[in-house]
Amino acid sequence: MAKKKKEIEIPEGLSLNKYAEKLLMEIAISAALLKKIDIEMEHELNNIRMKYELNRSQVHARCAAAESNLTELMKQKTQDLFGGLDKLVLKAGILFHSITKKLSFTGKGHQPTIDSIKALGWATPELIHVKESLETEELEKWSDEKLEKIGVSKKDNEDFAYELTVSEAVVSADLSGIPEG
Predict the structure, then answer these.
(1) Which of 49, 120, 134, 181 could form a disulfide with 11 if both were Cys (CB 3.0 to 4.6 A apart)?
(2) What is the 3-state secondary structure (H, E, C) of 23-62?
């Protein structure tokens, strides 16, 4: 079922052009007020950021240094800390250690590996994926007849836009001079 479009009602006493002008003014005033609010909000947020940033940066650096030192300590003293176990429970937290197998590729990237798998006849769809995509920009260059053969057609696409010509001085303007509607 098609969605019913809202019927635009022109307020009584306004011409079509006057109504469009009124809507443009409402947009201009609202946009200017939003810009003013955004500027004020950003100014206040910057003040809050500056108030906490120095202390936050110092604490962040301290935390990063402690994490780095802890990781290095666990790497260098694995046997002494863990003694073959996978975790060490301490008062302030738990340290974990695990060893997992990770693939290591020789050569540059996956392509040499893919080529080798194919050459050996071991390629499967689960292992090697081919991704196809359609370049619609190229397809748009085709003739209507050619497109029709593949079940594609070109449809009209209407675009509407507007451009405000009112200055930012409208921020102080009042909508009361503009008829309701």
Answers:
(1) 181
(2) HHHHHHHHHHHHHHHHHHHHHHHHHHHHHHHHHHHHHHHH
Q: Where are the domains of the chain?
A: 14-91
The rounded distance, in Å, linking the Cα atoms of 166 and 171 is: 10
The token duo for 174 is 């009042």
Low-confidence ranges of the chain (pLDDT < 70): 1-2, 107, 109, 162, 164-181
The predicted model scores a pTM of 0.47
Strands (E), the chain: 87-89, 94-96
Read off the pLDDT of residues 61-91 as tens digits, 9 standing for 90 and up.
Answer: 999 999 999 999 999 999 999 898 888 999 9
CA distance 26 to 179: 11
